[in-house]
Amino acid sequence: MPHRIVLATLNAKFIHASLGLRYLRANMERYGGADLDAFTELREFTIQRTPQDIVDELLRALGTAQAGDVQIVGLGVYIWNVVPSTQVIELLKAQRPEVRVVLGGPEVSHELGSQPIVDAADYVITGWGDISFPKLCRALVHGPQPLMKVIPGEQPSLDDIAMPYHHYSDVDLAQRVLYVEASRGCPFKCEFCLSALDKTAWAFDLDAFLAELASLYDRGARTFKFVDRTFNLKIDASIQILEFFLSRLAARPQEPLFVHFELVPDQLPERLKSCISRFPAGVLQFEIGIQTLNPEVQQAISRRQDAAKTEANLRWLTTHSHAHLHTDLIFGLPGEDWQSFARGFDTLWSWGPHEIQLGVLKRLRGTPLAVKAHPGMAFQSEPPYAILQTDALSTEEVQSFIRLARYWDLVANSGRFSQTLDLLLQGTSAFVAFASFAHWLWCTHERTSGLTPEMLVDALFTYLSEQRQLAPAQVRSALLSDYVGSGARASPHSLRGHLPSRRARALLSPPEGARHTARQKRHAVVLNP
Ligand code: SF4
What is the pLDDT, as a whole number, of residue 114? Predict the structure, then answer.
C-alpha cells in the first residue's frame, strides 16, 4: 500500500456537499504533485454518524501502511462539526497514532490555544488551505519535514487556484445542493461576521467560472447555491451570471432550476432589477441579511446599510420580481434590546419578505466581536457559541426569543399558515402579537420540537378563538384554507367535520410530499451551516 491522503469532513446533512474539500482535492495535482494526486481521495460524512463509525471508514480508506508510507487525514473543521470531529480525531489517534492529522477550516483558524481538537492533531492550516494543504502533504511525503505545527495558509490570487467543480460526482449533481462561488471575501466589516476580516472581495475569472457552470449544467446540475458573500457587488458580473441562467431557462423552459444568492440589500441598480424581473417563479432565491434596523446598533457593529434604499429594494423585489426573499435578523447585537428588536422586526415585516430568519448572535472565533471587549455580554462556551445575555437583554429574554424563533419557523417561515398568520399578527405590532402567541404556546405545550402541523392547527385555533376571542368561524376558515392548501391529509381536531373529503383534497392541492420537498430544498439551501 503506497502513501494515502484522505480528505474528510462532517457535513450537517447529506444534502450539503463540501466545496472546501473539493478545492483541496482539485489543487492536489498542481501543488502536491501527480503522485500525491493519485493517492488522494475524498470522504464526506454527516454529523449523524457515530465517531467510531467514521474512524472505521477512514481507516478502511487509509488501508494498511508499509514501512515508509505516509498516511494523512485532512479534516475540515466548522462550527457545526467541531465537537464530533474532536471525538473522531481522538479515536483515530488512539488507534493509529502514526496517521498524520491536518486540520483546516474557520473553527481552527483562530484562538487555537484553547481547543482540544488542535491538541489532538499534528498540523493546523489557518485561513485558506487551497494550496497550503497540498504543499504540506508534499513536504510530509517528500520532505523537508515542516517545522511548525500551525501553518498560516497562503492566500494566492484566485487565478492560481484550480476550480473544483469537476469533483462534484453525478450523485452530487442529482441529489445535493451544489455550492459555487464567483468571488470570495467581503468589503464590509460587520463585527459579528468572519468575512469582516477579508476587508475586500476577490473575483474568479468570470469566463472560466461560467465555463465551469456550463459544464455542471450540461452534466445535469439544477440546484446551485452561490456562496459569494455579496453577489451584487460587481453588477456587470452579477448580470452575466443571471444571463447564463436565463439562457438555460430559455433553452429548456420545462426543466427545474433553483439558484440561491446572497445580496446586500441597498444595492440594486435598474439594470440588475430588469434582469431579475425576467426570471419565472420558483427559480431565484435571495438571502438578504438585514441583521438590525437600529442605526445605533449598526454603528456599534460597524455595519453600513442605507435603510431607505433597503426598503425601496425589498419592496421592489416583492412586487416586481418572482424571487423568493429570505431575510435575516440577528437578536442580541450590542445595544439592541427587546423593544428595539421588535421595532426592527415590524418594519422589516411591513416590507413584505417571504421569510424572516430569526437568528441569535454567536461569538465566532476571530471576529472583531470576539476580540473586542463587550461588557455585559456572555456567550455559550461550546458551539454554537450563542449569546446568553447582554447589557440590554436578560437570560430569560434570550431564552424566550429562542423559543419564539423556533415557533416562527414552524408557523411563519414554513409557509403553511399564510392566511392564519394575517389573523395572528393583527395589532399594532406584529412582533408583540407573535411573542404573545409564542409565550402562550410555550406555557400550554412546554416544548418547541415534535409539534406536528395538526397540533399547530389545533393550538392556533384555541389561541385565536379563546385568547384573542376572534370568531371561531373566521379562524376555522383561515386554518382550513391553509391546511388544505398545504396538501396535508390528516384531520386536526379543530377542523373535524369541516374538511373536504380526502379525494376532494387530493384534487384541490398538490400532495404534501411535493410541497414539503420544495420547502425542504429552499430551507436546506439557506440553512447552510
Ligand atoms: S455580514 Fe455580510 S456584509 Fe457584513 S461582513 Fe459579513 S458577509 Fe460582509
Answer: 84
Kindly state the cell numbers that stand for 136: 504540506
By most ligand atoms within 8 Å of CB, the mutation choice from 181, 183, 188 for ligand 1 is 188
Ligand 1 centre to CA of 186 (Å) is 6
CA 76 to chain centre: 16
- CB distance 127 to 153 below 8 Å: yes
* Cβ 196 under 6 angstroms from ligand 1: yes
- Tell me how far CA of residue 73 lies from CA of 36, 106, 224, 241, in angstroms: 13, 18, 29, 36
Distance, in Å, from the CA atom of 109 to the CA atom of 128, rounded to the nearest integer, reads 9
Q: Is residue 54 exposed (0-12), middle (13-18) or buried (19+ Cβ within 10 Å)?
A: buried
- 18 CA → ligand 1 middle, Å: 21
Instruction: Give the helix ranges, DSSP H, for 176-234.
Output: 206-218
Query: Beta-carbon neighbour count of residue 384 at 10 Å?
Result: 14
* 518: pLDDT strictly greater than 60: no
Q: Which long-range contacts (CB under 8 A, 24 or more apart) does 509-514 make?
A: 509/484, 509/485, 511/487, 512/486, 512/487, 512/488, 513/487, 514/487
Residue 400: is its pLDDT beyond 80? yes
Binding site membership of 193 for ligand 1 (Cβ less than 6 Å): yes
Is the pLDDT confidence value at 528 over 50?
Answer: no
Please name the residue whose Cα sits nearest to atom 7 of ligand 1.
Answer: 229
Atom of ligand 1 nearest to the CA of 303: 4
User: Is 440 within 8 Å of 383 (Cβ atoms)?
Assistant: no
pLDDT in the model for residue 249: 98
